[in-house]
Amino acid sequence: MCTLTFKPVTLEDRDILTPYFEKTSWRDCNGSFASLYLWSKEYPALYAIVKDMAVVCYPHPTICSYYLPIGDGSSGRLREVLEVMLAHAKEQGTPLRLHLTSEDLENVKNILPHLENIQWKRELADYIYPAEKLRTLSGKKLHSKKNHLNRFMAENEWAFEEINAGNKAECLAMLEEWEAQNRYGDSRDNGLEAEHQAVRRALELLEELRLSGGLIRLLSGERAGRVIAFSIGEALTRDTFVMHFEKAFGEINGAYAAINQQMVEHFARDFTYVNREDDAGDEGLRKAKLSYQPEFLLEKGALQVTELL
Fold this sequence. Notes:
Layout: E1 7-8, H1 14-22, H2 33-38, E2 46-50, E3 53-58, E4 64-67, H3 77-92, E5 96-101, H4 105-108, E6 119-120, E7 126-130, H5 131-136, H6 143-155, E8 158-162, H7 168-181, H8 188-204, E9 212-218, E10 227-235, E11 240-248, H9 255-268, E12 273-275, H10 283-291, E13 296-298, E14 300-305
Parallel strand pairs: 4-5, 11-12
Antiparallel strand pairs: 1-2, 2-3, 3-4, 5-14, 6-14, 7-12, 7-13, 8-9, 9-10, 10-11
């Protein structure tokens, strides 16, 4: 039986882990090296390579929490790696807790028992949209969204720019201002600070992590010359682009609608789907994401595994 020897995820591991992610068809917003690394300080992750698959673990004294093995799991390899993971958990004296999505079920139905016991968490579900609908805002259900966007475009002189070394500092400055304006003054600020640090890392390491970023700059009015919105994403699979972060000044009517549409126009128009991540249980964010009419929600949950079929 192979053993698992874990090491922390670092930026230097990009070229090791990326090929494994590229062999999956995960539409999960966490299914990339960039996502894994960007949140690794807030949620420290370890990884090991076994049987030509990557195993990612979030250590805890009382439980081993894993993603499903990453890579090509065909020809029985997925089962073999799960056997190694289960043996490792038993050696550690902890349960094996697997993170799963609704798209994983077909691959594991003949391997994992008790799939009916998966604890799905609505606040973690990713919102998946047709890219063309987000780009054009066509159709009756998105008519109000298109009017909102058209109003922004009519009332403002503006420009879209790709984020690069020349304008990155302006995005960082906008991030600081946005974060100061959106503090809650309670425990929710802990989550805001964690996201703030992840967004900062994404901006600082945009090229190294092979991320795509865009911004909107106003060219007229009191804020002429200033960045008022930016977004960062990446190609997740052959058919899905994910928007990891999106920031805009809410007091500027239509700024969020504009950066959302422009990111799809410039980076995701050749993809079938856009993943706009989860709502973290925030009712306002949930309402906003549902208003864009997702094609489906990618459910996420966890299953405690003690044996294989």
